[in-house]
Amino acid sequence: MSTVPAPIELEPTKAQRRHDLDALRAFAMLLGIALHASMSFIPGLPWPVQDTQQAGWFMVLFLAIHGFRMPLFFLVSGFFTALLWQRRGPGGLIRNRTLRILVPCLLGLVTVVPAISVLPALATGRSLVVSAADDGSLIGAIRFGDAAAVRARLDEGAEIEAPDPAIQARPLSWAALRGDLDIARLLLERGADLKGLNEDLSTPLHAAAFTARPDLVRLFLEKGADPGVRGKDGSRPLEAARADWELVKGIADYIHIPVGDREEFERRRAEVIRILEPVSPGSAAVASTETPRATGPFMGVLDAYEAAMGSERLAYKLGGQRFHLVKSSVFAHLWFLWFLCWLAPLFVLFMAVATTIGLPRPSRRLVVSPANLLWLIPLTFVPQYFMGIKYPLLGPDTAEGLVLPPHLLLYYGIFFGFGALYYFTGDPEDRLGRNWRVSLPVALLVLIPAGIATMAGSRPLTALIQAAYVWLMCFGLLGLFRKIHPEENRAVRYLSDSSYWLYLTHLAVVMTAQVLVQGWSLPATLKFGIVFAGTVAPLLLAYQLLVRHTWIGWLLNGTRHRPAPAPEAEAPAATASA
């Protein structure tokens, strides 16, 4: 006689705490700090701080972590969301998520996110954000196109080669970025070095090519600029001229310079390339080194989707600045909270429908046995196919904007939904991830190299490899943590409680530490360790002294009671044992 799977029930129930998942959630948070701490040591990676000591292995570390960390976090979040739903009901879940997720997200927008630019400036004297106002400097006048002010500030003794404190670009490069021919000529007349290097080893010719300024490219070449000089990332001016539009637009918005609309920019870019190709040494080789993107079927659909996500119809002028609903950064590293603010009510809506129609629980075997890969990998393949349309990358895209890209919402929704499904089906025999001794080595030693090798090649193949990688890592780590941490451990529980605070506040501290060690003559690996430890240690101290037993700790984690003092009668024994 066949049995019908039991329907999902709404009645709140007690559930045994999963200490392994608490620890795993903390692990995912700490990996995020490690990932950001590594970024200044990765050659060629766009990051506000570029360390003088870099190493290529950090890129492998970055890709390995990025490829699974946030999907794992959303999987665990889905599990605990389902637990809350069954314990407290839909109303209790929404109240909890509002208090623990939405409120910290909104508070973070006015505290944590501004601190990313303010704290490094206070600690080091160097801002990581380019001001939108004229600060009275030579570069300030250049950025506003005020030739008279440029001349006056030069007459007053302004240093013509002094870089700005944010991106460390020299005045002539700023004139090139802005496309101001008259100011560039004035600077050259006053002795500006056409071959002077910026912090990233780029030249004014790189800057003019990058923002598609054909008149300035001609001027610099006439004055003796070298079209074969390479920047820190190995690119020459011709390669800079081939940079993707979204990259150019994003950097232009960040440093507050006009580049025109896309049609105008592409026209200027084509002219710059026509000028540079005949004079660039090995121009065919230069063209071949441009970062390719993975190709495959439905590329027209992908291009149309990417164009829709970056459409100027989604852009507005706010306070004189361009704001794009999808592309402009709003939440910085707090973007995951914004996703959870949407996934939690969507989960409640789904469960309301499921309980109304009596949707049965899926078979436990479909969720916890290795057969789950037969449906999870194809399901994840679909949104993964839309990742890295412009910039090949192992792992998911990033999204810090106000409007969530549909493919990313679907992608993280799959992991969130699987976590909830895992909770509802249960796993009393600990079958999920049982083969972690096999899945983790296969993921790290086979799929990571394969993913890196194919991420700029066949799109179907790389999407399949990356979908397999993320699930093997998730299941492998679930099994590993179930093995090593099945019971409560006070130290691990403390770290789990503090990890939310650590991750919310870490980025400003990471960047400050990166700026402080930037010029040290130490190995990159040692400096990375200093940045990581120099971030976690003070934030843990702040958590204990300023957060854990205050309203902030209550907001993030609920009430955490202080240890009760020992009874007076036991005081002598305690002293003796000490």
Automatic annotation (TrEMBL):
Q: Which SUPFAM superfamilies match?
A: Ankyrin repeat (SSF48403)
Domain Acyltransferase, by residue range, is 19-127, 312-542
Can you provide one Gene Ontology molecular function annotated for this UniProt record?
acyltransferase activity, transferring groups other than amino-acyl groups
Listed transmembrane segments: 23-45, 57-80, 101-123, 335-359, 371-389, 409-426, 438-457, 463-481, 501-520, 526-546
InterPro entries recorded: Acyl_transf_3_dom, Ankyrin_rpt, Ankyrin_rpt-contain_sf, Glucan_succinyl_AcylTrfase
Q: Which UniProt keywords apply?
A: ANK repeat, Membrane, Transferase, Transmembrane, Transmembrane helix
In residue terms, where are the ANK repeats?
171-199, 200-232
- Asked if the record carries the keyword Ribosomal protein, the reply is no
EC top class, as a word: transferase
Q: Which residues form the signal peptide?
A: none
Cite the Gene3D superfamilies for this sequence. Answer: Ankyrin repeat-containing domain
What EC identifiers does the entry list? 2.1.-.-
Specify the protein name: Glucans biosynthesis protein C
**Species for this entry:** Aquisphaera giovannonii
